[in-house]
Amino acid sequence: MDVPIGNFDRATPALECLDELVAPVADAVRRWNGSVPADRILYVTIDPDLADTAAFVAHYGEDLLEKSANCVVVAGRRGGDTRLAACLTLATTRVDVNGLVRRHLDVRKASFAPMDIATGETGMEYGSITPVGLPAHWPLLVDAAVLDQPWVVVGSGRRHGKLIVPGKAFAELPGATVLEGLGRP
Questions:
Q1: The pLDDT value given to residue 2
Q2: Is 120 exposed, middle or buried (CB count within 10 Å of its CB: 0-12, 13-18, 19+)?
Q3: What CA–CA distance (Å, rounded) separates 52 from 129?
Q4: Whose CA is closest to 153, among 169, 137, 139?
Q5: Where are the alpha helices (DSSP H) in the chain?
Q6: Pairing outcome for strands 152-155 and 161-165
Q7: Nearest CA to 182 among 69, 25, 64, 55?
Q8: Which InterPro entries does the entry mention (predicted)?
């Protein structure tokens, strides 16, 4: 299949390579029911040493920086209660954790979740957490700018691959709330 963005040898519909995905991501792709057909979710294999954004775009195409999104896990605390959420913003921005995220989660303090919590709760590898297949009860905060991209590159749950997804599909994921200004320059 032709690859819509980036310098990859080939892209495979994720439905055709579920064994390449971690279980929660494979399950989410298998159960996909959004307005974007599941066969438009593409999987590309990458060198796991190049999974981090800077190395990834340097190798697979500088133009991918504007078309890549990062999904981070945030922990918010109020009293003895900890609330986990995921935030999806373009790679050219930073998540407004202590402003918009903190207010949206109604917590006193918010910060990036520790690696063991992020990976343990998602079943995904650190550095490749994706919004596809997150725990269903989590809020997923999506920056509106992500939806404006025809195609977006995100993690696949494993460092050896990425997903290429139409931007508008992220608004339909379980728990998704679209927020203007979630990503800050």
A1: 80
A2: exposed
A3: 11
A4: 169
A5: 23-30, 53-60, 102-105, 115-122, 144-147
A6: antiparallel
A7: 69
A8: YbaK/aa-tRNA-synt-asso_dom_sf, YbaK/aa-tRNA-synth-assoc-dom
Strand order in the sheet with 12-13: 12-13, 42-45, 161-165, 152-155
Q: Residue 162's pLDDT is what? A: 98
CA distance 173 to 177: 9
Provide the CATH number for the domain around residue 173: 3.90.960.10
- Do the domain assignments include residue 4? no
DSSP 114: P
Q: What is the pLDDT of residue 163?
A: 98
Residues of the domain holding 158: 12-184
Please return the burial class of 36, using the count of CB atoms within 10 Å of its CB with bins 0-12, 13-18 and 19+: middle
Counting the structural domains of the chain, the total is 1
Stretches in the chain below the pLDDT threshold 50: none
pTM for this one? 0.96
| pLDDT value for 10 | 85
Q: How many residues does the chain have?
A: 185
